[in-house]
Amino acid sequence: MSKRQPTASTSKRTLSATPSLSSVASSQFGSSQWDSDTEYVGQEPYRPPQFNRFPLRVYLKYSALPLFKHVSHPSISSLIRLAYAPEWPKFRQLSRPVGKPGRRVLTQVNRLTSDEVLAGQVKRCFSSIEPIVMGRTQALEDEFAPYMHLPCMDIVNFDEEDQRLLSNVRHEDDVYRVMQRYVLDTASNCLRIMYGCEYNSAFTNKVRFSIANRLLPAHHGCWDIFILPDDGKNKVPLVLIFVPPWEFGYENFNELVAPREFKNDIINTLDSQPYSSANALLAIAYDVLKGRGYKFIFTNYTRWAFGAFTSDYQRAGITNVYEADLVDLDGFTDFSFGPNGRSPALDRGASVLEMLVLWMQLALGLYAPARRPEAEYYDL
């Protein structure tokens, strides 16, 4: 998965002209499950016919990732509970034996902070944006429709182009494009709207992910490396490492986020039995960020984790796993893995898109969180 170029948005999807947000909120989610900073959304009954009132705050919380269909792999639905993916080959490019440059000083992984603290950071972050922007942004159709790719209730729906692309994923490059187009570009455009910037503005370029496998080339690598652009000074504010779910299973991901110590130089030799793809991913994040930045995200598409290295790179803090809400091409959202039919991501108090947009803002210095001991420790 290398030598990729970012793809531009060409979607012609439409927004619902009169999304019935109040009825959806009360019937599908229940009013008690709405954060206080989303309750003002959908309260204005009149909308001028030439405009949409785009409910960004609701979109951030309740949008879902599409269940794309790969012609050569099992369905995403069947892979959600794949315990372990096939063992990876040992990538010699990642090994750092004694005497080789780039030795890693990472000694341990800890839990970054609690779900409650992160949910509070999400709420404070989005509450700091003008309510009119987060809840009732007035805009012409073409200002939003081409850029909001993730479906959400009756607000944004798949169009024919989406159906065609997502039902016929054939190559590794197609998988990368699904991640880029539907998830990362959508997150970038949410930030663009939050800060009131044009699509081709300097700010928009600053918050747009790009593929960066060149930073750590590996023949037949199982991962893709995305970064937020640096400032020309060899900095990487944020790295996102994506591994498809058929290459990184449920228990692989649990191993990745588990608190642990690295003994016997295992983070450099990566010579465990069986081979640990989780340690390999952490080594990749370390190599990309060492001397360039601190914050990282891991995902296999259905599962996500967010983290940061300490300033000396000796320790890493990683969140619990956030499971994405998933929607099939017919528009049916899969809530099957949360208790009582609830979204598993919302059980942690924040959705994947909320956490992604929060981490982007933290990495770029757009949002300064309330200072807490654990946040200071991991340089959040």
Quick description:
With 380 residues, the protein is an alpha+beta fold. The chain is built from 14 helices and 14 strands.
Provide structural commentary.
This protein has 380 residues and is of the alpha+beta class. It has one domain. Helix content is 32%, strand content 12%. The protein contains 14 helices and 14 strands. It has helices spanning 21-29, 56-62, 76-79, 115-127, 131-135, 141-144, 160-166, 172-194, 202-206, 250-257, 266-269, 277-289, 352-364, 373-377, and strands at residues 52-54, 65-66, 108-111, 137-139, 210-211, 224-227, 238-242, 260-261, 295-299, 303-309, 315-318, 322-323, 326-327, 333-334. Strands 3, 5, 6, 7, 8, 9, 10, 11 and 12 form a nine-stranded mixed beta sheet that branches. A three-stranded mixed beta sheet has the order 2-13-14, with no helix packed on it. α8 (172-194) crosses α13 and α10 (250-257) crosses α12 (277-289). The relative contact order is 0.19. Residues 14-32 have a biased composition (Low complexity). Residues 1-36 are annotated as: Disordered. Residues 1-13 have a biased composition (Polar residues).
Keywords:
about 375 residues, alpha+beta, three-stranded mixed β-sheet, 14 strands, globular
Count of individual domains = 1
Uncertain segments: 1-52, 335-341
| Percentage beta strand | 5-15%
Report the major sheet. Answer: 9 strands, mixed
**Averaged pLDDT, please?**
79
- In whole angstroms, the N-to-C terminal distance is 30 Å
Secondary-structure-derived class: alpha+beta
Element order: H for helix, E for strand: HEHEHEHHEHHHHEEEHEHHEEEEEEHH
What's the number of extended β-strand segments? 14
- Give the overall form: globular
How much helical structure, as a percent, in the residues?
25-40%
DSSP helical segment count: 14
Radius of gyration, CA atoms, in whole angstroms: 20 Å
